[in-house]
Design goal:
By secondary structure, the protein is an alpha+beta fold. It has 18 helices and 38 strands. It starts with a helix and ends with a helix. About 45% of the residues are buried.
Length: about 750
């Protein structure tokens, strides 16, 4: 870590000089001690950028971990947040700190009037997260345009709701809940806070079950082994006096839910799991909703559809705002200024009491709607394909954004406006421009690291507000292209191709295939996720890296076969181009693409020299039995992939299709990573089977790893572990780092037994 004096100079530069820093006194000194890592990156803004040095070295996994990112862009939300009067803009930034195993977050501010005059961002507040949660998340401005709220984690303590005043620089902790808070909503004046927090862990055993034993029904096996009940979440309301009240609901709250507090503070709307599945839901055209609506729920099982419930903050009445199926939370909800109705973005509508053309439309399409809570009347506003942004300031107009491929939401897309005229919502022209506010968004592409950019809507002048990673000029990045080919099925496929850093035309290179969503408009230094993938570090080791875009994720036999063909077609295409050595191919599966990887390892004619799978669905018999008792959702995925249940006549299809019954065909060394105890159980079949068969296999278990890894040390174990794995098996190379000695001793032994 840099000395305090050095960091102090960087902070001084970022904040506009030593005199300005001196006026901040102890507050800035405390910030420097807690947050020096991010400040170093912020100091090198485009307006005080050091002269670029010659590129000296390839990109490493450590560079990917320490990369400064616009935190909200990882969650597909606004990159920046305008104050209600439009005079200020704040953004959340994050970077990994490998030395401390933390993720360091900061909030930076620009004044809107200075955006196009070489404005430097002002660093307001910084926090570090030692958990898997964001240290700063979900900024909400209060109506004074001087104060914003957020959920924050003070290192080592549960997440709470904070406010920060940009004029006085006072940071105030609003809540003191004993467990971590996941989401919140705050009144415009900041005097009322609604929030969702986790309940303390509960044992599944009490005096009764200890004496007579626990009756097992729909419990999860991992929870039974752990001895703890499924995590529950509760709703709380805190008044201006600080008094906190728990709100009891007649439905289960999902862990991803967010409460939406009405402007008058009298009601809350939030998503809950549906207690009952309507008989009409199987009529929706969405195949997933249709299938899941017909599944029988066992005792104590809740449907994994969400619907919106309203509740009085006094703890009294509740009701369902929109009785229609949702797969997950639609995080775009807006209360009307008079607190009498809510606007829900892009949702299915109820089919009850509809017929003919209207029923057909509701079966096929989603809408943004207004729901009048007093009588339950539903008023259509906008068709699907529009993203609800909220109410225009001081007006009765709703703003929507036309959906596009741009990653950032709310700041760069084309806007559409709707207003209620004579009881009907109507699209209107933007006759009152939004104070001519600039568009501020994230600009990046497959070869350009992300920068926060402002665009003047009148003059079309564009300026770079913040180059998030100016030091990238001193790194050597591999060239990335989007390639396409016509598959064996006649359809066109696209993928991202990372060339070896020292690419020489005509030379054939080892290939590593990464699975999941390829996007040409994103700068994927590692891949679309921080788990397992390491595109640029692998290219820096002179691998060809192919970022595939899988065909589908519904796991049907048709799609599994199509994805397998895509692997084969991609390899054939690259081989025909003379880019790769077919004898040195590696592949990475993560999440639902684990099943695709395991399928090609057991059913394809392709030869793989090494493979890696992490925390995923595998369409296997053991994993099926683990989840089948917990409800139809996950069991049904296995049944779709394998053509039915693995019993009776359905067993034949499983024997033909399921990778778990063909593990003996695997001849590639396999690295398996389990992220948490439940992942360890679900990944166990392949590890145990390959071990019994004497095949080269290794399992790495991260006890507290999340599906999308957050902690720097976890990411290093996953991503750098894969780089080392493929470097060893595809190129026969070893990292001379003495700390990795045991790793290579294990792998050499595997190689000798192969």
């Amino acid at each position: 870590m840099r000395s305090l004096v050095t960091v102090w100079s960087y902070v001084s530069e970022a904040l506009g000089g030593v005199d300005h820093l001196h006026r901040r006194g102890k507050r800035i000194a405390h910030f420097v001690l807690c947050f020096s890592g991010v400040v170093w990156e912020l100091a090198a803004t485009p307006y005080a950028r050091p002269q670029a040095k010659a590129s000296t070295r390839p990109v490493t996994v450590a560079d990917a971990i320490s990369m400064v990112r616009a935190a909200d862009s990882l969650h597909v939300k606004e990159v920046v947040h305008f104050s209600p009067d439009g005079s200020k803009i704040v953004a959340i930034l994050r970077k990994g700190n490998l030395g401390q195993n933390t993720n360091d977050f900061s909030v930076v501010l620009w004044k809107t009037k200075d955006l196009f005059f070489s404005a430097k961002p002002e660093v307001l507040v910084g926090m570090s997260s030692a958990s898997n949660e964001d240290a700063i998340e979900d900024i909400t401005w209060l109506q004074d345009s001087e104060t914003f709220a957020f959920v924050g984690e003070s290192r080592g303590k549960p997440r709470q709701v904070f406010t920060f005043n940009v004029r006085t620089h006072v940071l105030r902790k609003m809540t003191s809940h004993p467990t971590k808070i996941y989401s919140y909503s705050i009144s415009a004046t900041g005097d009322t806070v609604a929030y969702i927090a986790e309940e303390p862990a509960r044992s599944i055993f009490d005096e009764e079950t200890t004496r007579h034993g626990l009756v097992v029904s729909s419990q999860d096996l991992y929870e039974l082994l752990l001895g703890q009940a499924e995590q529950q979440y509760q709703l709380f309301v805190q008044s201006g006096s600080g008094a906190t009240r728990k709100i009891k609901l007649p439905a289960q709250i999902p862990g991803f839910a967010k409460p939406f507090l009405s402007p008058d503070g009298m009601r809350i709307v939030l998503p809950v799991y549906a207690n009952q599945v309507s008989a009409t839901w199987k009529e929706y055209s969405d195949p997933y909703i249709r299938e899941m609506s017909q599944q029988q729920l066992g005792p104590g099982q809740a449907a994994r559809f969400t619907e919106y419930m309203w509740v009085d903050t006094s703890g009294g009445k509740t009701g369902i705002a929109l009785e229609a199926p949702g797969i997950s939370i639609a995080w775009r909800v807006a209360w009307s200024p008079d607190s009498r109705s809510i606007v829900i973005g892009d949702s299915y509508l109820p089919l009850d009491d509809t017929q003919g053309k209207e029923r057909k439309i509701r079966q096929d399409k989603t809408f943004s709607v207004e729901v009048e809570l007093s009588g339950g009347k539903i008023n259509k506003i906008a068709p699907q394909g529009l993203t609800l942004l909220g109410w225009a300031p001081k007006s009765s107009r709703l703003i929507f954004e036309v959906s596009s491929d741009n990653w950032s939401v709310g700041n760069s897309g084309r806007k559409m406006y709707f207003q209620k005229l004579h009881g009907q919502w109507t699209q209107i022209a933007d006759q009152v421009p939004e104070q001519t506010l600039p568009s501020v968004f994230l600009e990046e592409d497959m070869n350009t690291p992300p920068r926060i950019v402002a665009l003047n809507p009148s003059t079309k002048q564009k300026v770079i507000l913040l180059d998030l990673n100016p030091h990238f000029d001193r790194l050597r990045f591999a060239k990335v292209d989007e390639i396409s080919w016509k598959g064996s099925d006649g359809d066109e496929a696209k993928a991202g191709l990372y060339y070896p850093l020292d690419y020489v035309p005509g030379r054939k290179y080892p290939l590593v295939i990464q699975t999941h969503d390829w996007r040409r408009d994103r700068f994927f230094i590692d891949g679309p996720f921080t788990t397992a993938f390491a595109a640029q570090p692998l290219a820096g080791k002179n691998f060809v890296v192919l970022q595939l875009n899988e065909i589908s994720s519904d796991e049907s036999p048709k799609d599994v076969d199509a994805n397998a063909r895509q692997f084969e077609d991609a390899v054939n295409y690259l081989d025909k181009k003379g880019l790769i050595d077919r004898n040195r191919i590696g592949v990475i599966g993560f999440s639902h693409t684990c099943s695709d990887v395991e399928y090609v390892l057991t059913h394809s004619t392709l030869h793989f020299a090494a493979a890696s799978i992490t925390d995923g669905f595998d369409a296997g018999y053991w994993q099926y039995l683990l989840v089948a008792n917990s409800g139809p959702l996950y069991a049904h995925q296995h049944e779709i992939a394998n053509g039915g249940m693995p019993f009776g006549s359905g067993l034949k299809s499983w024997l033909e299709r399921s990778p778990s019954f063909a593990v003996d065909k695997v001849d590639a060394p396999v690295r398996i990573m389990a992220l948490g105890g439940d992942s360890l159980l679900s990944q166990w079949e392949w590890f145990s089977a390959l071990t019994r068969l004497g095949r080269p296999v290794e399992m790495i278990y991260l006890e507290n790893g999340t599906h999308e890894l957050q902690k720097p040390w976890d990411r290093m174990a996953s991503q750098q572990g894969n780089v080392d794995w493929f470097d060893f098996w595809l190129k026969g190379e070893e990292d001379p780092d003495p700390a990795k000695r045991d790793q290579y001793l294990r792998w050499r032994k595997m190689r000798s037994q192969q």
